């Protein structure tokens, strides 16, 4: 039987280090440990692998992609500059961000879409995103991916994380890294190791994405108006809760009788821990999706034959924990398009805040402009060998509503992985910054 090369490597590595340990206990040593296989973690692992480091990537789910796949978000934003006049999408930066975007584009066979106000996004199919991430990582013999591995502990000595503890398919696994990339989306490892973490869980509202198929494709545009009208009527009659009016469409869907929709809930309050919120949200929102589908098929023409095709396995949480870094990206940095000599990633998406209405509040900055994220925003104030990437680096709540998009998560992931590899291999961080800046300008 043909075994996927990445799997073969992971088995070989664990078997090697298992020698001499109790059955069931294992430990892995590596130069760079990457926690989380979302957009940022995938980019970080590839960057560190390309820089020659021995890398281990741990992901708690059985697939890669993070929110892109688990929450089925459907489009990549942050790859192209905002531009309402040009005829094609202008990349915000070169290097890995564009490389990944191009590979994804080829794999899905889609062109970037121009949305309202000159914003561009690349639509993708959910399984294809995961398989592109798998394919990219499989190219590196020095990168070991461990799926179903949840990190639940980290030990620091002084200002350095020296160990992390995970359950990999329910078996204990100890990691001994030289440097760490925290791309968990929640600053999990930084927090477990004792670094200060800002709780951003209540900053933005979460959404549950679901898909309907067999929608009358000839009526899709009209269908959405019909959905809104009928849902409003149902809410007014008391047949459905008010929340159902907060339904919106994922751009680029609807052409083939399949519609991807998102139901937006209220932002978290601080009265109880997030794990309690999530349990309630996911159970209630899934039940509500079934009610909405039943109602639409019984009360609208467009959705008469429609069937629920899928509900995202995870609720889409837009905001969570963020490190308190040596520097912090501020709202003004984003809105003024601030550049920095230590800039290691470019952001070009506007500030997009999801609050209590069906549509987000957008704060735009200049067309064809971008801001830069300095390396120190990725470095926790009190940990020397940890780099945070993706939606958990150090930023104000407002700035993160821009920098969290997948294109920018790939960019900060790439930078964190490069910096972590350079540090692990005793190369100066200045050199890492210069390398990343050169790649961004390619
Ligand atoms: C509903 C919704 C719609 C969105 N729409 C878009 C859109 O259209 N376009 C766009 O560009 N962006 C969109 N976003 C934002 C974007 O999807 C995310 O911000 C981005 O994917 C974050 O990437 P990340 O790698 O930083 O984090 P994540 O994608 O959250 O990845 C973190 C990874 O870490 C893993 N992990 C967490 N804890 C542990 C642990 N303890 N041990 C091991 N693994 C762990 C998780 O399983 C996950 O795979 C949307 C977000 C939401 C919620």
Polypeptide structure, described:
The longest helix has 26 residues, at 274-299. The protein folds into two domains: 5-201 and 320-440, FAD/NAD(P)-binding domain, CATH 3.50.50; 207-311, Alpha-Beta Plaits, CATH 3.30.70. The strands form six sheets. Strands 1, 2, 6, 7, 8, 9 and 20 form a seven-stranded mixed β-sheet that branches. A four-stranded antiparallel β-sheet has the order 12-13-11-14, covered by helices on one side. The chain is globular and about 65 Å long. The two termini are 41 Å apart. Helix content is 33%, strand content 23%. By secondary structure, it is of the alpha+beta class. Bound molecules: flavin-adenine dinucleotide (FAD). Flavin-adenine dinucleotide is lined by residues 35-41, 58-61, 66-68, 71, 73-78, 149-151, 183-186, 188, 207, 209, 262, 316-318, 390-391, 404-406, 409.
Structural key phrases:
alpha+beta, FAD/NAD(P)-binding domain, Alpha-Beta Plaits, 2 domains, four-stranded antiparallel sheet, 12 helices, 20 strands, 23% strand, disordered N terminus, binds flavin-adenine dinucleotide
